[in-house]
Amino acid sequence: MPLKLIRADITKLSCDAIVNAANSTLLGGGGVDGAIHKAAGRGLLLECMKLGGCKPGQAKITGGYNLPCKYVIHTVGPKWRGGTHGEKETLQSCYREALRLAEENGCGSVAFPLISAGVYGYPKAQAFRVAVDAITEYLLTGDLLVYLVIFDSAAYQISEKLYGEIAAYIDDCYVERHSDTPAQQYSRLYDGESFPLAPSAPDVPCAAANPADDTDMFCDALKTCAAKQPVELEEALRRLDESFSEMLLRKIDEKGISDAACYKKANIDRKLFSKIRSNRLYKPSKPTALAFAVALELPLAETGELLQKAGFALSHSSKFDIIVEYFIRRGVYDIFRINEALFAFDQNLLGG
Ligand code: AR6
Protein backbone atom coordinates (compact mmCIF):
# COMPACT_ATOMS: atom_id res chain seq x y z
CA MET A 1 0.00 0.00 0.00
CA PRO A 2 1.26 3.48 -0.67
CA LEU A 3 2.43 6.34 1.48
CA LYS A 4 0.56 9.56 0.84
CA LEU A 5 1.66 13.00 1.90
CA ILE A 6 -1.29 15.25 2.60
CA ARG A 7 -1.87 18.69 4.05
CA ALA A 8 -4.67 18.37 6.56
CA ASP A 9 -5.87 18.66 10.11
CA ILE A 10 -5.46 15.09 11.37
CA THR A 11 -8.56 15.35 13.58
CA LYS A 12 -10.70 15.61 10.45
CA LEU A 13 -9.49 12.40 8.81
CA SER A 14 -11.79 9.42 8.66
CA CYS A 15 -9.16 6.73 8.22
CA ASP A 16 -9.12 3.73 10.55
CA ALA A 17 -6.55 5.15 12.95
CA ILE A 18 -4.84 8.44 13.56
CA VAL A 19 -1.63 8.72 15.53
CA ASN A 20 -1.27 11.16 18.40
CA ALA A 21 2.07 12.78 19.25
CA ALA A 22 1.45 12.46 22.98
CA ASN A 23 3.51 12.92 26.15
CA SER A 24 4.34 10.11 28.53
CA THR A 25 1.34 10.77 30.81
CA LEU A 26 -1.07 10.27 27.88
CA LEU A 27 -3.32 12.79 29.60
CA GLY A 28 -3.33 15.41 26.86
CA GLY A 29 -1.31 18.54 26.22
CA GLY A 30 -0.84 21.09 23.46
CA GLY A 31 -0.18 20.74 19.72
CA VAL A 32 -1.78 17.84 17.91
CA ASP A 33 -2.36 16.08 21.25
CA GLY A 34 -4.54 18.96 22.44
CA ALA A 35 -6.42 19.09 19.13
CA ILE A 36 -7.11 15.32 19.22
CA HIS A 37 -8.36 15.34 22.82
CA LYS A 38 -10.52 18.38 22.15
CA ALA A 39 -12.12 16.83 19.08
CA ALA A 40 -12.47 13.35 20.62
CA GLY A 41 -14.11 14.53 23.84
CA ARG A 42 -13.89 13.39 27.45
CA GLY A 43 -14.26 9.68 26.66
CA LEU A 44 -10.76 9.65 25.23
CA LEU A 45 -9.25 11.19 28.36
CA LEU A 46 -11.06 8.66 30.58
CA GLU A 47 -9.69 5.75 28.55
CA CYS A 48 -6.20 7.28 28.51
CA MET A 49 -6.28 7.55 32.31
CA LYS A 50 -6.47 3.75 32.51
CA LEU A 51 -3.40 3.17 30.34
CA GLY A 52 -0.70 3.99 32.89
CA GLY A 53 1.25 6.29 30.60
CA CYS A 54 3.61 5.39 27.79
CA LYS A 55 7.39 5.47 27.37
CA PRO A 56 9.11 7.36 24.56
CA GLY A 57 9.29 5.19 21.43
CA GLN A 58 6.31 3.07 22.51
CA ALA A 59 2.64 3.26 21.54
CA LYS A 60 -0.82 2.52 22.98
CA ILE A 61 -4.22 2.39 21.33
CA THR A 62 -7.65 3.74 22.31
CA GLY A 63 -11.00 4.33 20.65
CA GLY A 64 -11.62 7.41 18.55
CA TYR A 65 -14.75 8.64 20.41
CA ASN A 66 -16.09 11.77 18.68
CA LEU A 67 -13.35 11.69 16.05
CA PRO A 68 -14.18 10.38 12.56
CA CYS A 69 -11.52 7.64 12.93
CA LYS A 70 -12.02 4.31 14.74
CA TYR A 71 -8.83 4.41 16.79
CA VAL A 72 -6.26 6.79 18.18
CA ILE A 73 -2.75 5.39 18.52
CA HIS A 74 -0.81 7.38 21.08
CA THR A 75 2.94 7.43 20.79
CA VAL A 76 5.52 9.47 22.64
CA GLY A 77 8.26 10.98 20.54
CA PRO A 78 11.72 11.95 21.80
CA LYS A 79 12.47 15.45 23.02
CA TRP A 80 15.23 16.90 20.86
CA ARG A 81 18.48 17.18 22.83
CA GLY A 82 20.92 17.87 20.03
CA GLY A 83 20.53 14.53 18.29
CA THR A 84 23.10 12.68 20.38
CA HIS A 85 20.72 11.03 22.83
CA GLY A 86 19.20 8.35 20.64
CA GLU A 87 16.46 10.67 19.39
CA LYS A 88 16.46 9.16 15.91
CA GLU A 89 16.13 5.57 17.15
CA THR A 90 13.32 6.57 19.52
CA LEU A 91 11.50 8.37 16.75
CA GLN A 92 11.90 5.39 14.37
CA SER A 93 10.49 3.19 17.10
CA CYS A 94 7.41 5.47 17.42
CA TYR A 95 6.53 4.86 13.76
CA ARG A 96 7.27 1.14 13.92
CA GLU A 97 5.25 0.59 17.11
CA ALA A 98 2.30 2.64 15.91
CA LEU A 99 2.24 0.74 12.60
CA ARG A 100 2.44 -2.56 14.43
CA LEU A 101 -0.54 -1.63 16.63
CA ALA A 102 -2.52 -0.45 13.62
CA GLU A 103 -1.92 -3.76 11.90
CA GLU A 104 -2.70 -5.83 15.02
CA ASN A 105 -6.02 -4.03 15.32
CA GLY A 106 -7.03 -4.75 11.74
CA CYS A 107 -6.66 -1.21 10.42
CA GLY A 108 -6.49 -0.64 6.68
CA SER A 109 -5.35 2.97 6.91
CA VAL A 110 -3.47 5.11 9.40
CA ALA A 111 -2.49 8.78 9.50
CA PHE A 112 0.58 10.20 11.24
CA PRO A 113 1.44 13.75 12.21
CA LEU A 114 5.12 14.65 12.18
CA ILE A 115 5.91 13.24 15.59
CA SER A 116 8.28 15.34 17.75
CA ALA A 117 8.45 18.09 15.12
CA GLY A 118 6.54 20.64 17.23
CA VAL A 119 6.83 21.20 20.98
CA TYR A 120 9.50 18.50 21.28
CA GLY A 121 11.74 20.46 18.95
CA TYR A 122 13.02 17.76 16.56
CA PRO A 123 14.28 19.66 13.48
CA LYS A 124 11.41 19.45 11.04
CA ALA A 125 13.35 18.35 7.96
CA GLN A 126 15.03 15.57 9.93
CA ALA A 127 11.78 14.52 11.59
CA PHE A 128 10.21 14.34 8.15
CA ARG A 129 13.05 12.20 6.80
CA VAL A 130 12.84 9.75 9.72
CA ALA A 131 9.07 9.51 9.20
CA VAL A 132 9.32 8.83 5.45
CA ASP A 133 12.14 6.31 5.87
CA ALA A 134 10.46 4.42 8.72
CA ILE A 135 7.14 4.26 6.90
CA THR A 136 8.62 3.21 3.56
CA GLU A 137 10.65 0.52 5.28
CA TYR A 138 7.45 -0.80 6.83
CA LEU A 139 5.67 -0.70 3.48
CA LEU A 140 8.20 -3.08 1.94
CA THR A 141 6.33 -5.84 3.75
CA GLY A 142 3.34 -4.19 5.43
CA ASP A 143 -0.04 -3.67 3.91
CA LEU A 144 -1.49 -0.45 5.30
CA LEU A 145 -2.41 2.76 3.54
CA VAL A 146 -0.33 5.33 5.39
CA TYR A 147 -0.89 9.07 5.38
CA LEU A 148 1.78 11.46 6.56
CA VAL A 149 -0.05 14.61 7.51
CA ILE A 150 1.60 17.97 7.13
CA PHE A 151 -0.29 20.57 9.10
CA ASP A 152 1.43 23.90 8.66
CA SER A 153 3.43 24.98 5.63
CA ALA A 154 6.52 25.69 7.76
CA ALA A 155 6.43 22.09 8.97
CA TYR A 156 7.68 20.86 5.69
CA GLN A 157 10.30 21.94 3.22
CA ILE A 158 12.77 20.21 0.99
CA SER A 159 16.28 21.59 1.21
CA GLU A 160 16.61 25.15 0.01
CA LYS A 161 19.28 24.07 -2.46
CA LEU A 162 17.08 21.44 -4.08
CA TYR A 163 14.08 23.76 -4.06
CA GLY A 164 16.16 26.46 -5.75
CA GLU A 165 17.53 24.08 -8.37
CA ILE A 166 14.09 22.78 -9.26
CA ALA A 167 12.65 26.30 -9.36
CA ALA A 168 15.45 27.31 -11.74
CA TYR A 169 14.83 24.24 -13.90
CA ILE A 170 11.13 25.07 -14.08
CA ASP A 171 12.01 28.63 -15.10
CA ASP A 172 14.39 27.40 -17.79
CA CYS A 173 11.81 25.04 -19.18
CA TYR A 174 9.19 27.76 -19.33
CA VAL A 175 11.65 30.02 -21.11
CA GLU A 176 12.46 27.23 -23.53
CA ARG A 177 8.85 26.62 -24.19
CA HIS A 178 8.11 30.22 -24.91
CA SER A 179 11.16 30.98 -27.01
CA ASP A 180 11.57 27.92 -29.25
CA THR A 181 9.50 26.47 -32.01
CA PRO A 182 7.65 23.29 -31.06
CA ALA A 183 10.11 21.25 -33.14
CA GLN A 184 13.05 22.79 -31.28
CA GLN A 185 11.40 22.17 -27.94
CA TYR A 186 10.76 18.59 -28.88
CA SER A 187 14.27 17.93 -29.97
CA ARG A 188 15.58 19.58 -26.80
CA LEU A 189 13.24 17.60 -24.59
CA TYR A 190 14.68 14.38 -25.94
CA ASP A 191 18.16 15.74 -26.36
CA GLY A 192 20.65 12.91 -26.21
CA GLU A 193 18.01 10.22 -26.01
CA SER A 194 18.15 7.61 -28.74
CA PHE A 195 14.52 6.85 -29.27
CA PRO A 196 11.98 9.64 -28.97
CA LEU A 197 8.74 7.70 -29.14
CA ALA A 198 6.45 10.08 -27.31
CA PRO A 199 6.34 13.45 -28.99
CA SER A 200 5.08 16.11 -26.65
CA ALA A 201 2.34 17.52 -28.84
CA PRO A 202 2.99 21.24 -29.21
CA ASP A 203 0.39 23.36 -27.51
CA VAL A 204 -1.59 20.32 -26.47
CA PRO A 205 -2.09 20.25 -22.73
CA CYS A 206 -0.30 17.45 -20.94
CA ALA A 207 -3.40 15.72 -19.63
CA ALA A 208 -5.13 14.16 -22.61
CA ALA A 209 -3.81 14.62 -26.08
CA ASN A 210 -6.04 13.57 -28.95
CA PRO A 211 -5.22 9.88 -29.42
CA ALA A 212 -5.59 10.06 -33.20
CA ASP A 213 -3.15 12.96 -33.45
CA ASP A 214 -0.86 11.15 -31.09
CA THR A 215 -0.79 8.10 -33.29
CA ASP A 216 0.08 10.21 -36.34
CA MET A 217 2.84 12.00 -34.50
CA PHE A 218 4.04 8.72 -33.10
CA CYS A 219 4.34 7.25 -36.60
CA ASP A 220 6.08 10.41 -37.82
CA ALA A 221 8.56 10.13 -34.99
CA LEU A 222 9.18 6.52 -35.89
CA LYS A 223 9.77 7.41 -39.52
CA THR A 224 12.20 10.11 -38.49
CA CYS A 225 14.10 7.51 -36.56
CA ALA A 226 14.06 5.07 -39.45
CA ALA A 227 17.14 6.30 -41.21
CA LYS A 228 19.14 6.28 -38.00
CA GLN A 229 17.91 3.13 -36.31
CA PRO A 230 16.31 0.66 -38.69
CA VAL A 231 16.48 -2.31 -36.34
CA GLU A 232 14.94 -0.45 -33.42
CA LEU A 233 12.30 0.89 -35.77
CA GLU A 234 11.26 -2.55 -36.90
CA GLU A 235 10.92 -3.66 -33.30
CA ALA A 236 8.99 -0.51 -32.40
CA LEU A 237 6.57 -0.92 -35.29
CA ARG A 238 5.88 -4.42 -34.10
CA ARG A 239 4.96 -2.96 -30.74
CA LEU A 240 2.62 -0.26 -32.00
CA ASP A 241 -0.39 -2.27 -30.89
CA GLU A 242 1.00 -2.96 -27.47
CA SER A 243 -1.23 -1.53 -24.73
CA PHE A 244 -0.06 0.29 -21.60
CA SER A 245 -0.61 -2.82 -19.52
CA GLU A 246 1.30 -5.03 -21.94
CA MET A 247 4.19 -2.62 -22.19
CA LEU A 248 4.37 -2.30 -18.43
CA LEU A 249 4.41 -6.06 -17.90
CA ARG A 250 7.00 -6.50 -20.64
CA LYS A 251 9.26 -3.89 -19.09
CA ILE A 252 8.89 -5.46 -15.65
CA ASP A 253 10.03 -8.76 -17.18
CA GLU A 254 12.88 -7.10 -19.02
CA LYS A 255 14.10 -5.51 -15.78
CA GLY A 256 13.94 -8.89 -14.09
CA ILE A 257 12.02 -7.57 -11.08
CA SER A 258 8.87 -8.94 -9.46
CA ASP A 259 5.46 -7.35 -9.88
CA ALA A 260 5.40 -6.57 -6.15
CA ALA A 261 8.79 -4.90 -6.23
CA CYS A 262 7.58 -2.74 -9.09
CA TYR A 263 4.25 -1.60 -7.66
CA LYS A 264 5.76 -0.98 -4.24
CA LYS A 265 8.53 1.10 -5.76
CA ALA A 266 5.85 2.95 -7.74
CA ASN A 267 3.90 3.67 -4.52
CA ILE A 268 0.91 1.93 -6.11
CA ASP A 269 -1.36 -0.37 -4.18
CA ARG A 270 -1.70 -4.02 -5.03
CA LYS A 271 -5.36 -3.82 -6.06
CA LEU A 272 -4.70 -1.14 -8.63
CA PHE A 273 -1.79 -3.10 -10.01
CA SER A 274 -3.99 -6.22 -10.30
CA LYS A 275 -6.56 -4.21 -12.26
CA ILE A 276 -3.88 -3.03 -14.66
CA ARG A 277 -2.47 -6.52 -14.97
CA SER A 278 -5.81 -8.18 -15.70
CA ASN A 279 -7.18 -5.59 -18.13
CA ARG A 280 -4.96 -5.14 -21.16
CA LEU A 281 -6.83 -1.96 -22.13
CA TYR A 282 -6.68 -0.33 -18.68
CA LYS A 283 -5.98 3.42 -18.93
CA PRO A 284 -4.13 4.64 -15.83
CA SER A 285 -4.02 8.25 -14.68
CA LYS A 286 -0.94 10.24 -15.58
CA PRO A 287 0.55 10.13 -12.03
CA THR A 288 0.09 6.34 -12.05
CA ALA A 289 1.70 5.89 -15.46
CA LEU A 290 4.60 8.14 -14.49
CA ALA A 291 5.02 6.34 -11.18
CA PHE A 292 5.60 3.10 -13.07
CA ALA A 293 8.10 4.80 -15.35
CA VAL A 294 9.99 5.96 -12.27
CA ALA A 295 9.76 2.55 -10.59
CA LEU A 296 11.19 0.96 -13.74
CA GLU A 297 13.92 3.61 -13.84
CA LEU A 298 13.14 4.40 -17.45
CA PRO A 299 15.13 7.12 -19.16
CA LEU A 300 13.20 10.08 -20.51
CA ALA A 301 12.51 8.67 -23.98
CA GLU A 302 11.16 5.40 -22.61
CA THR A 303 9.13 7.30 -20.05
CA GLY A 304 7.53 9.14 -22.94
CA GLU A 305 6.90 5.86 -24.69
CA LEU A 306 5.11 4.38 -21.68
CA LEU A 307 3.10 7.56 -21.08
CA GLN A 308 2.05 7.62 -24.69
CA LYS A 309 0.47 4.19 -24.26
CA ALA A 310 -1.80 5.73 -21.65
CA GLY A 311 -2.60 8.73 -23.88
CA PHE A 312 -0.26 11.20 -22.16
CA ALA A 313 2.95 13.04 -22.92
CA LEU A 314 5.44 15.03 -20.93
CA SER A 315 4.98 18.72 -21.46
CA HIS A 316 6.99 21.80 -20.57
CA SER A 317 3.71 23.59 -19.91
CA SER A 318 3.17 21.56 -16.76
CA LYS A 319 5.11 22.11 -13.54
CA PHE A 320 4.31 18.56 -12.50
CA ASP A 321 5.90 17.18 -15.68
CA ILE A 322 8.93 19.42 -15.44
CA ILE A 323 9.64 18.42 -11.86
CA VAL A 324 9.43 14.71 -12.66
CA GLU A 325 11.59 15.29 -15.72
CA TYR A 326 14.15 17.10 -13.53
CA PHE A 327 14.64 13.94 -11.45
CA ILE A 328 14.59 11.50 -14.36
CA ARG A 329 17.26 13.51 -16.18
CA ARG A 330 19.44 13.21 -13.10
CA GLY A 331 18.81 9.50 -12.73
CA VAL A 332 16.99 9.97 -9.42
CA TYR A 333 14.28 7.32 -9.28
CA ASP A 334 13.28 7.44 -5.62
CA ILE A 335 9.57 8.11 -5.80
CA PHE A 336 9.42 9.52 -2.28
CA ARG A 337 12.13 12.07 -3.01
CA ILE A 338 10.27 13.08 -6.16
CA ASN A 339 6.99 13.28 -4.26
CA GLU A 340 8.58 15.45 -1.59
CA ALA A 341 9.57 17.92 -4.30
CA LEU A 342 6.16 17.74 -5.98
CA PHE A 343 4.58 18.34 -2.60
CA ALA A 344 6.80 21.34 -1.96
CA PHE A 345 5.63 22.82 -5.26
CA ASP A 346 1.96 22.02 -4.50
CA GLN A 347 1.66 19.49 -7.29
CA ASN A 348 -0.14 16.16 -7.50
CA LEU A 349 1.99 13.28 -6.29
CA LEU A 350 3.14 10.21 -8.17
CA GLY A 351 1.52 6.91 -7.36
CA GLY A 352 -1.94 5.55 -6.80
N1 AR6 B 1 -3.10 17.93 12.52
C1 AR6 B 1 -1.93 17.49 12.03
N2 AR6 B 1 -0.74 17.89 12.52
C2 AR6 B 1 -0.73 18.77 13.53
C3 AR6 B 1 -1.93 19.28 14.11
C4 AR6 B 1 -3.15 18.82 13.56
N3 AR6 B 1 -4.33 19.22 14.03
N4 AR6 B 1 -1.59 20.15 15.10
C5 AR6 B 1 -0.25 20.19 15.14
N5 AR6 B 1 0.27 19.37 14.19
P1 AR6 B 1 3.35 18.62 18.43
P2 AR6 B 1 5.49 16.92 19.50
C6 AR6 B 1 1.67 19.09 13.85
O1 AR6 B 1 3.88 19.80 19.17
O2 AR6 B 1 6.52 17.80 18.90
C7 AR6 B 1 2.10 18.13 23.26
O3 AR6 B 1 1.92 19.09 24.25
C8 AR6 B 1 2.67 20.16 14.21
O4 AR6 B 1 2.70 21.16 13.20
O5 AR6 B 1 1.88 18.41 18.48
O6 AR6 B 1 5.64 15.44 19.35
C9 AR6 B 1 2.17 16.73 23.82
O7 AR6 B 1 1.32 16.58 24.94
C10 AR6 B 1 3.95 19.36 14.24
O8 AR6 B 1 4.51 19.27 12.92
O9 AR6 B 1 3.99 17.24 19.00
C11 AR6 B 1 3.60 16.62 24.18
O10 AR6 B 1 3.87 17.21 25.43
C12 AR6 B 1 3.51 17.97 14.66
O11 AR6 B 1 2.08 17.97 14.60
C13 AR6 B 1 4.31 17.39 23.12
O12 AR6 B 1 3.36 18.35 22.64
C14 AR6 B 1 3.91 17.58 16.08
O13 AR6 B 1 3.85 18.71 16.93
C15 AR6 B 1 4.69 16.52 21.94
O14 AR6 B 1 5.44 17.30 21.05
TrEMBL record:
Cited Gene3D superfamilies: Leucine Aminopeptidase, subunit E, domain 1
Domain of life, per lineage: Bacteria
InterPro entries (UniProt xref): Macro_dom, Macro_dom-like
Organism ancestry: Bacteria, Bacillati, Bacillota, Clostridia, Candidatus Fimenecus
Domain Macro: 1-167
SMART domains: A1pp
Protein name: Macro domain-containing protein
